[in-house]
Write a structure and sequence with these properties.
globular; 4 domains; about 450 residues; four-stranded parallel sheet; 8 strands
Length: about 450
């Protein structure tokens, strides 16, 4: 695709990257078949190819976009299914992030949208604030039905539903015997949403890693990975979170003996692996950020390269594996989780349209509730059609989004691996038994 950026515009690294991405697009249209919003709406402007045209015109002029342009760019989930499909290697991720940053600085959103986005940015990335918001949201439950009746207030209803369905949970025990053979030392990222919504994910990861031979460390002072605000176009805030984590993790690495930074939320992992790119032009951080990205791994990557502990339990259950977009498209991790589950003795099945996003996508389910709900229902229907005993995934957003729509318990892959190798049954299965819903136990 031909571009008409000026030499002055191309002197900006972000614009130069975007220009390269736009020029790589050959208009083939392969991306339309794998784009969730195009599949739902059938509107060219809601496809990656259509959005590239819109972003090209917006960035070349440098002017504030129209509300219509913003609407179609906002509808992008950043699931990166288009990147997996694209035969031309279009760097769609960094193009759409540049476009969103441009929108954030040049476009005046309606007051309601500005307040909603400000609230998300100031609450969700902070663990204590998020936990408090969930508790307060549960008190406002009677307002949910009223707010659902209007498209204007539906995002608020979605936030209240999140609070009602996901009360903050107490920390789970991480006690587990360490393996006789020590394999190394790792940092496990703590995250922001996961420890509030599903602390049992990290607890299972720590137990499993200890049992596999890894000494687990947490980095004091670590915060949100920056993904949530960065994908909203709030670039300065996102980079602030990123620099903070680079400082914190660098201190741990410099102290010696860190073999990897492990992530249990694949949405965070995709962003952390991009730290080197995002800070490439910052002389004070570029080298350290690149080192962080090189050490970052999804937990399934490390476990698949290691030998799992011997199986203690062989639960006779059928697992439907949901591949998070940030894992399969963002990090190109496709086979490892399924291989690990099968190696642990589980019967694993995958749904049709496994490449399609479930609709969670960070704050997307709040900002675009109508599309997110349609995608969530579509994904849940395909997973439940497999008649599984449990649904497993590798991302907190997917677990919460699908879990709100399915009668089948939703767990993290590491919870099942921990269970099979000597840990407790996943909490979601226990909760299911106690409430009389679908569940399984060894």
């Amino acid at each position: 695709m031909k571009t008409e950026f000026t030499s002055e515009q191309l002197a900006d690294p972000a614009t130069a990257t975007s220009a390269g991405a736009i020029r790589a697009c050959v208009h083939c249209g392969f991306c339309t078949a794998t784009c969730p919003t195009y599949v739902l709406n059938g509107d060219e402007r809601d496809s990656p190819r259509g959005r590239i045209y819109l972003m090209k015109a917006m960035l070349e002029t440098g002017a504030a976009p129209t509300p219509d342009v913003v609407r179609h760019i906002d509808r992008c989930l950043t699931c990166l299914g288009c990147v997996t499909t694209c035969p031309s290697g279009v760097d769609y991720l960094h193009l759409v992030e540049h476009a969103r940053a441009h929108i954030e600085t040049t476009y005046q959103r309606p007051l309601r949208e500005r307040l909603l986005r400000w609230t998300i940015a100031k609450v969700l990335p902070w663990r204590r604030r998020f936990a408090l918001a969930l508790r307060l949201g549960r008190l406002a439950a009677p307002l949910t039905d009223v707010l659902q009746r209007s498209a204007f207030t539906r995002p608020l209803a979605t936030m209240l539903e999140l609070a009602q369905e996901n009360a903050p949970r107490p920390a789970a025990t991480t006690d587990a015997p360490c393996a006789a053979q020590r394999r190394g030392r790792v940092i496990v990222q703590q995250g922001c949403a996961e420890p509030v919504l599903r602390p049992e994910f990290r607890a299972a990861a720590v137990r499993l890693l200890n049992r596999t031979g890894y000494d687990v460390r947490f980095a004091p002072g670590e915060g949100c990975c920056g993904a949530l605000v960065h994908h909203m176009g709030r670039e300065a805030e996102g980079l602030g979170f990123i620099r903070r984590n680079v400082d914190v993790w660098s201190r741990e690495i410099d102290a010696g003996g860190i073999d990897a930074i492990l992530v249990t939320a694949s949405g965070c992992g995709a962003t952390i692996k991009d730290y080197g790119f995002l800070l490439r032009n910052d002389p004070a951080y570029a080298a350290r950020a690149a080192r962080i990205s090189a050490l970052a791994k999804d937990i399934s990557e490390l476990l698949d390269a290691s030998s799992l502990p011997p199986r203690v339990n062989t639960p006779p259950i059928r697992v439907a594996y949901h591949a998070a977009c940030s894992l399969q498209h963002g990090q190109k991790i496709v086979t490892q989780p399924k291989h690990l589950l099968e190696a642990a003795g589980f019967s694993v099945v995958t749904p049709t349209e496994a490449h399609m996003c479930c609709g969670s996508a960070g704050a997307y389910s709040i900002l675009q509730p109508e599309i997110a709900d349609r995608l969530g229902a579509r994904k849940t229907e395909r997973l439940e059609a497999l008649s599984p005993d449990v649904i497993a995934t590798g991302n907190i957003g997917c677990a919460v989004h699908i879990g709100a729509r399915s009668h089948v318990p939703v767990v993290h892959v590491v919870e099942l691996l921990d269970w099979a190798t000597g840990g407790p049954a996943p909490a979601a299965l226990k909760i299911g038994k106690e409430t009389g819903t679908h569940a399984a136990d060894a």
